[in-house]
Amino acid sequence: MQDDGGAIDASGHDDNGQRYIVYKVDGNSIGNGGSCGNDVAPYVGTPIILQPVTANGYTFDGTATTILDNNGAGDEGIVEAPSLVQSGSTYILFFSSGCYTTGAYNVNYATASSITGTYTRAASPLFATDTDGLTAPGGADVNVDATHMLFHANYGSGRAAYEAILTISGTTVTA
Question: What distance in Å separates the CA atoms of residue 112 and residue 120, rounded to the nearest whole number?
């Protein structure tokens, strides 16, 4: 995996007693340049991986599955910061795309009826620059019952934490 850029942004998920981790393969760390290292074609994959683990939460147990990857220029060559939750029979993968140093960074989500996918992206990000006055929101984490989200966005000359209350209706998430 190190040859692919390493793994970052791990997050846990418990699916009725089967534990998983989701993480990003950091392909942009070996990408072809640009703001965060992958915004110059040809784009390198930055897949989000779903990996079953044992009850201890960290020992791999089974086959890893790629559940999402970047869409090239549309994502500035990056997807990252996965957070997986379930609402009813729908799995919701929250993630960020774009480079955190640009206004294209956002909080997005994709949904599936199975934990292993196929995940379908929402038509537009949940949070993007100019949503509620935010600039470059991203890096979200969602509580287990999918009602509260923490994320960061630009504030002054740095980054600050923000909270959102989520509402989920089928495959649609609003905040």
Answer: 6
Instruction: Give residue-wise pLDDT tens across range 2-12.
Output: 578 899 999 99
Q: Which residues contact 15 (CB under 8 A, 6 or more apart)?
A: 86, 115
Q: What is the pTM of this model?
A: 0.96
Amino acid (one-letter) located at 139: G
Smallest CA-to-CA distance from 133 within 162, 96, 100 is with 162
Tokens of 163: 């909270």
Tokens 């993630």 sit at which residue? 95
Domains and CATH numbers, the chain: 2-174 (2.115.10.20)
- Taking CA atoms, 147 is separated from 21, 87, 159, in Å, by 20, 10, 23
Whether the bond into 125 is cis, omega within 30 of 0: no
Q: Please give the share of the chain, as a percent, with pLDDT higher than 90.
A: 91
